[in-house]
Fold this protein.
Amino acid sequence: MPENAQLSDLNDRSREVFRRVVEAYLTTGEPVGSRTLTRDMSEKVSAATIRNVMQDLEYLGLLDHPHVSAGRMPTQLGLRLFVDGLMEAGPVSASDREMIEETLSDDSGDTGAMLDRVSTALSALTHGASLVLMPKQEAPVRHIEFVGLAPDRALVVLVFADGRVENRVFTPPPGHTASSMREAANFLNALAEGRTLADLRARIAGEISASRQKLNSMAAALVSSGLAMWEDGSSDPRLIVRGRANLLADELADLDLVRSLFDDLERKRDIAEFLELAEQGEGVRIFIGSENKLFSLSGSSLVVSPYMNADRKIVGAVGVIGPTRLNYGRIVPIVDYTAQLVGRMISGRKG
């Protein structure tokens, strides 16, 4: 089957048949027959004519049928073509908007609790599983200290400007001394003021090389060892998942596939990739079926949108996952609107 079918390949009748098949399938989850379409077409055509059009669409790889006597349903390629070229995404309804805004109205300052409520609301609104990637902790570092615990163990104490303190154990270089630890801490604290960990990591990479002659080799090794530990610290983003039971509500659900999806969600693997998917394009992105590399399950779709902080930097993402027959026209604006509101809350902007 051709995989480069375009809307320009379709005449008006073929385009209407294709659109009506997809819309009916997204509503019912069932294959659509030619007789059903004869009642809805804008022009009077016979069921035989519609069947011929469906055969042409099947040849283009846009439609398929589960068995000989069944109607047609869109393929993954067909869904992609529909979403990109024919889908009409309406505005967020007043009731949906009210529910989202009410979820964000509690300005307690607890970002984690707020995003947890957002995830629950998204799941309830879309009847799918919601995913919210919390932002990394971005508070500047106020002070860094190294503490020796044993010949083969040391502690990095990180004090942040927001008052948070993190302790991370790591393996220091052999032969480290109290003097080299002080030198390493002094080196880092001279650079740390006003910088987040991400900023500090970027700066240190060049500074160690430039200052190696001034910095004791043992202290430089301590900095490098401690730096490696920061990459896996507790400031990493956290993925919130809500509404997994919604994926079982569909009577047509393949339990083995859903179970596979649950396994992936429970492991919360490739969280960084989830954010990377959102960062690759502005606004809402839609991944249909096997386009979604985040999960091993191929029979699902992911609708995801990033949100930004006050510096217009992407710090997290919100999304909905469900069967490929998601109501994209409704869910896309909900995800987009939610991401915008979360961004405003995170950055402290009003409006």
Summary: The mean pLDDT is 80.
